[in-house]
Specification:
There is one protein chain. The protein is an alpha+beta fold and 254 residues long. Helices cover 20% and strands 46% of the residues. The protein contains four helices and nine strands. About 4% of the residues have low confidence.
Length: 254
């Protein structure tokens, strides 16, 4: 039997060095905030009555003036942080006189309750993709992904019950009737952007806890919902890559 050379190809032989880089949760936090913000960008008020006036004004704000991301023990602490950071209306020039506590607001915070366990809904994906060096050819890392379940608290804060009710109903309606629970965050690994797949879990069953401050002259009304998000946690494993030549032969009887 003789052999006939059919093709010459080159393949990469990759060896992991032991070094690795991982994604965090900041990109997912920002993506959750964008999803919540988009809900309030899409809702409209066609007939502005007295009980809907403040809600309509809230919808007219720039997105960065509606939703804030941060961890606070209570509503009063959050409003104090807004005041100290002069962040009540970040899109308005600081030279203009504004009410720093002009409600309503939405605050989104993530607890450190995180579940990495594998189950029927969570899956590991090894060797998901390769990341390449500056030449665009040489592999520098292999990417694997696992999934983590994160817990977010969405706090809606208003000066009037009617405004808070409209905010609660807007979020609940959007979550219940949204066509897809999936969304995407963008993080970076090895200097390159990577997509983080995210999805809301059990969003249809959203509920609220009353966090309103005690009765006083300047009472604040607040309600908090808990949202569960499943997100990718990606790991880039550094590799040493060497190119090898591979010859492909066929067997010929003779």
């Amino acid at each position: 039997m003789t052999r006939e050379l059919l093709a010459k190809t080159r393949q990469w032989e990759k060896t992991r060095t032991g070094k690795f880089e991982i994604t965090g949760f900041a990109a997912t936090d920002d993506a959750v905030a964008r999803e919540i913000n988009s809900i309030f960008s899409n809702v409209v008020v066609t007939h502005v009555t007295r009980d809907r006036e403040r809600f309509a004004a809230f919808l007219a704000r720039a997105p960065q003036d509606r939703v804030f991301v941060g961890n606070f023990d209570n509503v009063v602490e959050f409003l104090g942080a807004v005041r100290r950071a002069a962040a009540g209306r970040r899109s308005i020039p600081s030279s203009e006189s504004i009410n720093r506590d002009a409600m309503p607001f939405i605050n989104i915070s993530r607890s450190f309750d995180a579940d990495y366990d594998s189950n029927d809904n969570q899956r590991d994906r090894d060797d998901l993709a390769d990341l390449y060096g500056s030449d665009g050819i040489t592999p520098v890392a292999e990417v694997s992904a696992t999934q983590v379940v994160l817990t977010y608290n969405v706090t809606l804060i208003a000066a009037e019950k009617s405004t808070l009710s409209l905010m609660c109903n807007t979020l609940a309606s959007s979550m219940r009737w949204r066509e897809s629970t999936s969304f995407t965050a963008i993080d970076r690994l090895v200097h390159l952007p990577v997509e983080i797949d995210c999805s809301f879990q059990d969003a249809k069953g959203i509920g609220y806890s009353d966090l309103s401050t005690p009765i006083m002259e300047n009472r604040i009304f607040a309600a908090q919902a808990t949202l569960t998000v499943m997100a990718d946690m990606m790991t880039a494993f550094e590799v040493d890559a060497k190119q090898m030549r591979v010859n492909t032969y066929s067997g010929v009887e003779g």
